[in-house]
Design goal:
With 290 residues, the protein is mainly α. The chain has 12 helices and no strands. Helix 2 runs antiparallel to helix 9, helix 4 packs parallel to helix 6 and helix 5 packs antiparallel against helix 6. The longest helix is centred in the middle third of the chain and has 30 residues. The relative contact order is 0.20.
Length: 290
């Protein structure tokens, strides 16, 4: 029988098994994707001096080129999220990775400031929506109690990339002169193509829906899908906090509460409700009686 939100108490063994598989298969992939994303975004800082030597890009031009990335990212983030819903996470995350990798690799062929601006803008447009897409994927695949841990591992990719980006980019810059190319050209080309290859791997390993995952057993898919759906239904139908009643004591009471550390009851209730909703109750087996 189907589980109802009111009977969600404990996660079934099948759900725990499915979550373990997701943490072994999907979460590390997203971690590596974030590392590649971060490196392709910041590697331009390591190439500044060589870019200046190659075609005389000024500090002002370099700053403008670096900044237009974020302008494009902000403009295209919402449209990217809308298209994610239409095409699904598998196709859209693959598209994001492949296009940003190709554009990052194309940076190897710039020879003037205008092309530099254009490619940086296109890179921002290509990467837009990457982070929200991954978070959205987690909401469709993981119970509330596991999603925070998955997100923490994913976000840790930026810290790992900070450690990796310098030595990796520096080593690629040392390829200066190979095949007559500047080191910065090799850096952009290789790091960009790595993202393209990673995008192909993403397409092969990700699935749009829990029901499509061939690497989960039938029971794992059934229980996990029911678990996530039950938690989503509970969140959508959870009542909001009651509006506060007018307090005749007015500002005097608020000031006294701040000084004493004792806030009005409705604020404490809101805090407890927010904590409860963010932590979530573990979901149960769909075999639970309704």
């Amino acid at each position: 029988m189907n589980a109802s939100p009111g009977h969600v108490q404990h996660q079934s063994p099948a759900v725990r098994s499915a979550v373990s598989k997701i943490f072994r298969r999907v979460v590390p992939l997203f971690f590596v994707m974030f590392v590649a994303n971060y490196i392709d975004r910041v590697n331009i800082g390591f190439a500044k001096d060589q870019l200046d030597a190659s075609f005389g890009i000024s500090s002002a031009s370099f700053g403008l080129g670096a900044g237009v990335f974020f302008i494009a990212y902000a403009i295209f983030e919402v449209p990217s999220n809308v298209l994610l819903e239409r095409f699904g996470a598998k196709i859209w995350l693959t598209r994001i990775m492949v296009t940003w990798g190709l554009i990052a690799a194309a940076m190897a062929f710039i020879d003037n400031a205008t092309l530099f601006y254009v490619l940086r803008f296109l890179l921002g447009a290509a990467e837009a929506g990457f982070f929200p897409a991954v978070i959205y994927y987690f909401t469709q695949w993981l119970p509330d109690t596991d999603r925070g841990r998955a997100t923490s591992i994913f976000v840790a990719g930026s810290s790992a990339a900070t450690v990796i980006a310098g030595p990796l980019s520096g080593a690629l810059l040392e390829m200066h002169g190979i095949a007559g190319w500047d080191g910065w050209r090799w850096m952009f080309l290789i790091e960009g193509l790595v993202s393209v290859v990673l995008g192909m791997i993403v397409f092969g390993l990700l699935d749009n829906r829990v029901e499509d995952a061939t690497w989960l057993t039938g029971q794992e898919k059934t229980d996990l899908a029911a678990c996530v759906a039950a938690e989503r239904d509970r969140r959508e139908h959870a009542p909001g906090p009651a509006p506060p009643r007018p307090d005749p004591a007015g500002p005097d009471r608020d000031r006294q509460a701040r000084q004493s550390g004792t806030w009005p009851p409705f604020i404490n209730a809101m805090s407890l409700k927010t904590a409860a909703r963010s932590s979530g109750e573990p979901c149960g087996s769909p075999s639970s009686s309704a």
